[in-house]
Specification:
binds phenylalanine; 341 residues; seven-stranded mixed beta sheet; alpha+beta; 40% helix
Length: 341
């Protein structure tokens, strides 16, 4: 038995020396130290040995076991160090390097302006009303006092679908009819934001698609003074506290009287520069008192109700504020442009 133990020890230690990987080391452990290892067998057979031999064999078996455990641990340790040294050489991971920056998105400049406008109009008591972008000819023109023969239609040439009478809206004004028909005879105070489409010779000043924000207020005794006061209050919030404004008579078929509002050029302070084309003024919106026919088409009695409407272009206003010289940048998706905002 003692000889057998010596042989087990010698064999185990020789085998251990040639082991190079963790899997083989694990197999070695099972084979020599596991529950069905030869060493365990020897211990199991201990009762069969004679009384005199028994303590001696027991002691030797323990010595062998301790020696094997110690050798195993040493080998495990060596293998671990080797693996570490190897990974340090092969895998060049430098934990002191800075991490990869996370790319942060941002809001499109037009969206930023829209949100600012929504906030200002909300403060002034205007709800947002979303109206459709695909419209009928009737809503976009007819109900806004532009029958089929009306020359004003030329200003708003648009995209026609293959279904007759179905077009992409050229302006947010058809939304006026939608809100009125939904709310009549309640008073109304809303803005109608969204995309409009026009068939244009594309230039630095016009695009085939752009946002508009329409405003509409309907009620009793609303006058042109309310229109002016509201828009001036708006200009002082959006541009600057004491932004000078002026109203010029204009024409829209769906408002009477109609006007265009200018704000004093904030680039040159009214002196005249290339942005305001030496006029000292920047045109920012069209507006007017809702035409009696339009009120009627919306379900309001023009004898009893009056109202004002306006339409502004958020991209245009962003251009003025941020001194962008070409409206086509907005929908070109060029990061060099977008990342500046
Ligand atoms: N819809 C007009 C345009 O697109 C703007 C406007 C809106 C004018 C409301 C008057 C009243 O040019």
């Amino acid at each position: 038995m003692l000889k057998r133990l010596d042989r087990i020890k010698a064999q185990a230690l020789t085998n251990l020396e040639s082991i190079n990987d963790p899997a083989a080391l694990q197999a070695w452990k099972v084979k020599y130290l596991g529950r069905s290892a030869e060493l365990a067998e020897v211990l199991q057979d201990l009762p069969k040995a004679s009384k005199e031999e028994r303590p001696q064999i027991g002691r030797r078996a323990n010595e062998v076991k301790n020696a094997l455990v110690a050798a195993y641990e040493e080998q495990a340790n060596t293998l671990h160090k080797k693996a570490l040294a190897q990974s340090l050489v092969q895998e060049h991971l430098d934990v002191t390097l800075p991490g990869r920056p996370r790319l942060k998105g941002r809001l499109h400049p037009a969206t930023q302006t829209l949100r600012q406008l929504f906030r200002i109009w909300a403060e002034m008591g205007f709800q947002i009303y979303h109206s459709r972008e695909v419209e009928t000819d009737e809503y976009n023109f007819g109900l806004l006092n532009m029958p089929a023969y009306h020359p004003a239609r030329d200003m708003w040439d648009t995209f026609y679908t293959t279904r007759s009478g179905i077009i992409l809206r050229t302006q947010t004004s058809p939304g006026q009819i939608h809100v009125m028909r939904e709310r009549a005879p309640e008073p109304i105070r809303v803005i109608l934001p969204g995309m409009c489409y026009r068939y244009e010779q594309i230039s630095a000043r016009s695009e085939i698609q752009f946002n508009q924000i329409e405003g509409l207020a309907i009620g009793h005794n609303i006058t042109f003074a309310d229109l002016k006061g509201t828009l001036m209050a708006f200009a002082s919030r959006f541009f600057s506290q004491n932004a000078a404004t002026r109203f010029r008579a204009s024409h829209f078929p769906f408002t009477e009287p109609s006007a265009e509002m200018d704000v004093e050029c904030f680039i040159c302070g009214g002196e005249g520069c290339s942005v305001c084309k030496d006029t000292g003024w920047l045109e920012i919106l069209g507006c007017g008192m809702v035409h009696p026919l339009v009120l009627q088409n919306g379900g309001y009695d023009p004898e009893e109700f009056s109202g004002f409407a306006f339409g502004m272009g958020p991209e245009r206003m962003t251009m003025l504020k941020r001194q962008i010289h070409d409206i086509r940048y907005f929908w070109r998706n060029d990061l060099r442009f977008l990342e500046q905002f």
